[in-house]
């Protein structure tokens, strides 16, 4: 058994949960925050047997889009804020960041 942890964008999360549910994957949805953008994203925990991992990955791929996002940099600490002109920079976010962990034991009480 494996635990798939998938960090997706909020915009994709409902569609992704629905698509996984249609193929009988069980999911837990967590409201999370990205460390870099400090914006909300969604982390899904998906427990499944090893032979279904590829299918789950394909569904994640099909339902998570890459997007460009503008980020306003934070002014430098201790620097002269008067002369600092923040210039938004573009970062590419998503589709999804996925971790796959082996599960030693699984219980439901
Ligand atoms: P955030 O940390 O908010 O990052 C959002 C996007 O900002 C990233 O998209 C990446 O394009 C950019 N970014 C992140 N750190 C950067 C840096 N130091 N310099 C320049 N650009 C940077 P993704 O790579 O698609 O990541 C989307 C979200 O997935 C992340 O949101 C974070 O919540 C999670 N994530 C990504 N890699 C991770 C990792 N190795 N461990 C844990 N969570 C991760």
UniProtKB/TrEMBL annotation:
Q: Where are the transmembrane segments?
A: none
Which Pfam families does the entry link to?
A: CdAMP_rec
InterPro entries, per this entry?
Answer: CdAMP_rec (IPR010375), N-reg_PII-like_a/b (IPR011322), N-reg_PII/ATP_PRibTrfase_C (IPR015867)
What superkingdom does the record give?
Answer: Bacteria
Q: Which PANTHER family match?
A: CYCLIC DI-AMP RECEPTOR A
Q: What is this protein called?
A: Transcriptional regulator
Naturally occurring in which organism (per UniProt): Virgibacillus oceani
